[in-house]
Specification:
Strand content: under 5%
Structural class: mainly alpha
Order of helices and strands: H
Shape: rod-shaped
Radius of gyration: 37 Å
Largest sheet: none
Helix content: over 70%
């Protein structure tokens, strides 16, 4: 019986060591997951910032397109006036 008991005892010690190792691995992966959650949060904030910037830029493009249309009209009017005066 002594041999069987010591064999089971050493297996139990081995399994406890293995369980401890796996607990350490789990802790490491939890830390890694936390790091990736932080990284994802940072990228979400960056995407939100860029979305706001994009809205502002699209508004500005609309304003500039309006200015270009007004300038085209002014150039066309001036061209007609210039050609009318020269003929």
């Amino acid at each position: 019986m002594g041999v069987v008991a010591s064999e089971h005892g050493s297996r139990a010690v081995g399994w406890r060591g293995e369980a401890q190792r796996w607990r350490g691995e789990a802790q490491r992966w939890r830390g890694e997951a936390q790091r990736w959650r932080g990284e994802a949060q940072r990228w979400r904030a960056e995407a939100q910032r860029l979305d706001g910037e994009n809205v502002g830029l699209r508004t500005r493009v609309g304003e500039l397109e309006g200015h270009v249309a007004a300038l085209k009209e002014t150039v066309a009017t001036l061209s007609r006036a210039l050609y009318a005066d020269s003929s």
